[in-house]
Amino acid sequence: MRIRLLIFGLFITSNLFAQTITGTVREKGSGLPLPFANVFISNTTLGKATDKEGRFRITGDLPQEIEVVASFVGYITEVKKISTGGKAEIELDFELEINESNLTEIQLKARRDKNWEREFRRFEEVFLALPDDPYKPKIEITNPWVVDFEKVKVQGAPNYVKATAQEPLKIINEALGYEVDYYLQDFRVSRAGSRFYGQVFYESLGQDSLKENWDEVRDENYYQSIRFLNQAILLNSTDTAHFRVYHALAERLDRIRTNDLTMEIGETVVPIPVDSILRRPNGDGTFRIFLPGRMEIHHIDKPWKNDYYTNVYHAISWIIAPDGYYDVDRKGILINPTQLVLSGYMGRQRMARILPLDFEPKSAYLATGFEGEVVQNPLEKSDRLREKAWFTTNKPYFYPGETAWLGGHMLYQEPAWSDTLSRVLYVDLLDQDSIYQSYTFPLEEGRISGGFEIPASLPTGDYALRGYTTWGRNYSESDQFLLPLPILDPGFKPKADSLIQEGVFGVIQIQSSFSISDSLSYRVMDLDLSFLDEFQNPIDATFVLSLTDGEEVPFLHQENDLEKALDWLDKDLPDDFVTDFSCPIEYGISVRGNFIPDNRRMPLAQPITIVRGDLEDYGQVQSDSLGRFWATGMYYRDTAQIAISAVNERLRSFGSIELIPFSKPDLPASLPKLTYELERVSNENPLLDTSGDYILLEEFVKEEVKERDTMADRNYGYGIPNREMGEEELAKMGDWTQVFGKLALFGNYTFGEKTGPPLIIINGQKLPGMDPAEIFLTIVPAEVESIKVYNDNISKSIFGMMGYGGVYMIETKKGFKSGPESDRKFNSEGFQIFQIPGFTDFKEFPNQPPSDQFLKRKPTIYWDPFVETENGIFKSQVKVPYGVKVIRVKLDGRTTDGEVISKVLELRL
């Protein structure tokens, strides 16, 4: 209690303790005084101009560690760091040296070009405000021409871009009401991060009409700052109306983190009362604050969009002290900013939101509600759930009878929801008046891959591909993707557009190299693509890759590229948006229908059983009070027999089922079109992309070289599990409770859907619909060789509806029984059988043609919709038909940090 009173006393008396700095400013060498020189304390509003004798006097309540700055036009600015240490008076003298290298304003402006403009835009985002900050339009640099940039290459370290300024930056901040002089000392930015440092002097703007609003905005920013949090810790506050503080624990291997804060409290975050954070006086007027680890700060009175929790609608920050502690003065100001790492909302702070260190709040600004009372705007929640497809094709135009391959990925307004949104994409081939064909493709981790044959009877003309999801139909037509698709007469092809590559400073560079060798059936090109950022550092990317015959496939400029598609992310829902969300999210092939009872007195709400084939998939859903039901999650290609019925406790069918057909969206008001001119094809037999030209051979390995894997080793074709426990670890487990505690529980990641019990697979045999407790009673962990868990939306989707609740795959030791004896063949008596189309079946592009067959020349040489680099490099062997002289390489995708890649390269063989 004594410590608390002492600290509180320091804060009470701090406003009464005025300190004074006096001194002179003279010219170095001559010793002549410099009248009207500027002298100020950095990061404050405290400053004075010297008198005719070069003298100055500054008075105020000063921070513990300060920088005093003296500047004069045409002279080199001088900075002195001092510790006030409770001193009442401090004397400082400055000697300024003439700046021989100053350039005039005209000279500086003449050196600006497009490269400079690009770098200055990025400079503003790092220095002034982030692009999505509401303050960004309210702050500007009025003398931008004083800034210059250079690329710095560092041996053994990442390269970076450095910014310098020959004069102080003049900044008008109408958001906080300050005019700022910034003396830039260091600014550097690389793909790994950025930093800037300098001396700053603040003066309040003189617009009295805005003063009241400025006071409110300044107070709000103050109460969201690390400085205020530090003051709350120093004051030993039991709580604050502005922050909730949590200790962010390390991720547990036996548990998958959710996006629900209420589920994470006590698991990955632990509430920490502010008064429990340890702090100690250092004895020199400063204090040391000790952090138990990474701290998660919730700004409960600051509404802000975040992608970390789906049920939290305020700003979140994280702070960590690498040394376990950091030092502050009595005002809560950091003595050494490098002692604390800020991220999240606090990490977004730029000049637009930074207050002077001598700022004191004018009002007792209080939060309007605590965490549990924060209400999300329904329109904002609807906006966060939006998704839109983007894809491209292997070439820009096609002929009737050709095969078109497409690849791309989904765009999400809120990436945190991506694993919960749609996993089915619909693609329609349409013209202005009708839909000719429709296709259905699975979405795997938001990636799009598909293919289809263009009908040989399709009339030539301008068509389009439309991509959409069922969930996306709850929104406007703008959330549907349209890609122009010209279908041409085989006797013609478009005239090529000129290929112009823009090599500007500040974009991703792609360097290509290749070598060619001959074989009997084709040529082999070893292709290397290296991706470098603007600092010449390697950067990883994912992209769609198409290689076409440059002589046969003309280059066409396409308006609907990925960069343009990303504009959708910046478009909010209109204020009058209304929807009933009648179109649900699809997690696989779906069925919708009505249950019709045998008599009117029978309730319409009944469990509906859905079975695919001979129990290849199985699930049960509940019809509502009107008899309607919806089932989703089946995963199969082409068409399957689906048995559906209501089943009573005796497993007998009753009532009848009527399916509700799926409708299509209305035709769009207009279709995008490519602009091109046609020319006649000189060759009477034009080259066509047809999938049947190649015969795919599976790779094989001689048994003496590699031992053949068993089905169990390959997880029965179901892919890599999320968790796995082997024989040695299982032998240490006393019962299944310990096993499940180690492997983690299953969560519900299906939006608005309820999951059933986990699916059990024992020695490759599925046991759908059975109580897991009944199965595990028959075996003990010591009898099991391995147990594998599939419990996230991506890995369990391949199991269809049966895998909704997750999957346990168990392999028992030889000699032990594999579970309860049961005949799992499906008896469909009483069920109604429906033919339900699944995902569109298509042949993958034949990138690996057989070596013993001559490779015919085709327009598309190579196609891969899922390319990923490793350490910034992509390597591949491309089989090239004889006769190809030019290969055009087209890449569309994004770097790991989200920058768009859209590039066309030409390789001359």
UniProtKB/TrEMBL annotation:
Gene3D superfamilies according to UniProt: Carboxypeptidase-like, regulatory domain
Coiled-coil region list: none
Keyword Signal: yes
SUPFAM superfamilies xref list: Carboxypeptidase regulatory domain-like
Keyword field: Signal
Signal peptide as annotated in the record: 1-18
Pfam families in the cross-refs: CarbopepD_reg_2
Keyword Transmembrane helix applies: no
Name the UniProt record assigns to this protein: Carboxypeptidase-like regulatory domain-containing protein
